[in-house]
Request: fold
Amino acid sequence: MSSAEILKPKSMVRPKHWSEEVENAYRFQLAGYRDVTEYKAIHNVEDCERWPDSGFVKKLKRKEDGYFYYYNRTRECQDKDINKTKMYSY
Amino acid sequence: MHCAAKKRVVKSEDAFTIKTWQSHGNIELEGPKSAGSLTTRPTKPTNFRKFYERGDFPIALEHDTKGNKIAWKVEIEKLDYHHYLPLFYDGLCETVHPYEFFARQGVHDMHEHGGSKILPVIPQLIIPIKNALNTRNRQVVCTTLKILQNLVCSADMIGEALVPYYRQILPMLNLFKNNNLNSGDGIDYSQQKRENIGDLIQETLEHFERQGGEDAFINIKYMVPTYESCMLN
Reply:
């Protein structure tokens, strides 16, 4: 938990177009995390489970209650959700 | 003067009744009544609804799920598929929220992450699939067809495993196969929304043929005589 507090993002941008990074950020934010950095720090894991072909996030533990979210192997972030996603940089 | 033609009252009656027999042809016969083969059948409350209301499913019962997702309390890989998958399939008959959503999404998630655990459960899925198709409810039939397409592609050998059960599943597909809207030049919006039953049935049968091995086509043809192979032609 401590490392997550240390790693604070310096800036945030709202994406205009869909990309693989946006898709993964969308998936993390749906589960309550900022991005993969926070997920790794909180759960103390190397990486989350990903789909082998696309590299999209497959399964996440929700931040608030520890329940599981399962994601599709194909794109889930629709056009209307793109500008709601936040891309953090450190 | 009395011979002025009386206005003949023509009554219409059902065919093959005593009245029509006694009338000696002075009665107009009505056509046969609709058999109602495509009308929606009433459904009984499902086991899925009972289990859901009792909180027996390992899912978070929140109605405002973000992004149309189910939050699973237990990892899907650890679930007993013999118990839960038939129950979720049972919920396919549901048409009201939240039961309909949780059943559909639950089946989808279990397909996506089931792998080899789905195949042994196939025999238990046939009765819920048959019940769902037998409701003849457009919404239920559409959902079930999409789920069948998803099922045959979810793991190896599932298409082959379904072949012996075509006799249970396909009669309803045969019934609705020509259920297409003839709108001439007009736009059929159900095509865009993937709600056109005729098209969905054609797609489903093609999936069955592709995934079902060498015996699939002849078995489909036996139950749906108007189906033409998508692989031989």
